[in-house]
């Protein structure tokens, strides 16, 4: 999709700090992290919402979630981690290309929650 910033990140037209990439998915650091190590995991095929994804697309994405979370844990050593996904502006979505947030948590000092 030509006007989508995440499609442009996948295509390398917008720079990002890449964490992981395979045939189906791309993971990169959030530009405005809610905490140290905040990462986004997206499908390479443009899908706005979770409702738009096939079970196979969702499986391809979620199957790498443990690997991404483990890499974040090893790199940043948080005390916990939230995985979350917003669907629709009302739910807090601001980029309309499906993304799964990985938000590491650091006790009192992470300034979030
Ligand atoms: P949402 O609010 O849609 O669930 O989350 C969108 C996320 O994308 C936000 O956390 C925001 O900081 C991040 N974001 C928006 N534009 C860019 C960008 O150009 N590059 C990166 N790396 N993250 C972005
Ligand atoms: Zn897109």
CATH superfamily: HIT-like
The pLDDT mean sits at 95
CATH architecture descriptor name: 2-Layer Sandwich
* Radius of gyration based on Cα positions: 14 Å
C-alpha geometry: globular
pLDDT < 50 stretches: none
Through-space gap between termini: 34 Å
> How many individual helices?
3
Structural class: alpha+beta
Strand order of the largest sheet: 1-2-3-5-4
SS strand fraction: 15-25%
Percent in helix? 10-25%
> What small molecules does the structure contain?
guanosine-5'-monophosphate, zinc ion
**What is the name of the CATH topology?**
HIT family, subunit A
What is the class in the CATH system? Alpha Beta
Multimeric state of these chains?
A: single chain
Could you tell me the number of beta strands? 5
For the largest beta-sheet, the strand count, sense and barrel status come to: 5 strands, antiparallel
Order of helices and strands: HEEEHHEE
What number of domains?
1
Motif (Histidine triad motif): 97-101
Protein name: Protein hit
Domain HIT: 5-112
Compile the SSE list and pairings.
Elements: H1 5-11, E1 18-21, E2 25-29, E3 39-43, H2 55-62, H3 65-76, E4 80-84, E5 100-105
Antiparallel strand pairs: 1-2, 2-3, 3-5, 4-5
Residues 5, 14, 16, 28-32, 40, 86, 92-95 line the site of guanosine-5'-monophosphate.
Give a description of the structure.
The protein has one domain: 2-Layer Sandwich (HIT family, subunit A), CATH 3.30.428. The chain has a five-stranded antiparallel sheet, with helices on one face. The model has no long low-confidence stretch (mean pLDDT 95). The chain contains three helices and five strands, in the order αβββααββ. The radius of gyration is 14 Å and the shape is globular. It is α+β, with helices and mostly antiparallel strands. Bound molecules: guanosine-5'-monophosphate (5GP) and zinc ion. The site of guanosine-5'-monophosphate has 14 residues, from strand 2.
